[in-house]
Amino acid sequence: MRASRELSAQPLHVTLEATRARKIRRSTRPDAPDFDRVRSLVLVFNRLRWFYPRPYLCLFDSLALLHFLAKFDLFPDWVFAVSADPFEAHCSVQLGSVVLNDTVERVSGLTPIMYV
To answer: What pTM, to 2 d.p., does this model score?
Structure first.
């Protein structure tokens, strides 16, 4: 609900800056992320997502996942990417080189333009 409220009630740049500030303020960089824990949390998020019946939208789903993972002190990157021909804009969540809410095949054809 928080992601939905933010995306409908404030300009995107405000949401981006708040997300960036939280990440800087609270993020601790462990030597190596516990990918088993991250994978388990993403699976829980995907199961819980069914209880919020909103059509898939990469912006909303990525922001909601970022908020969910922040509750567990995990602060991955919010990656914005585009392709030129045909034009497409997309965002996803990534921890290092691991894509958390999309497939590598889907995002590999896009050029990242911003990391939050």
So the answer is: 0.91
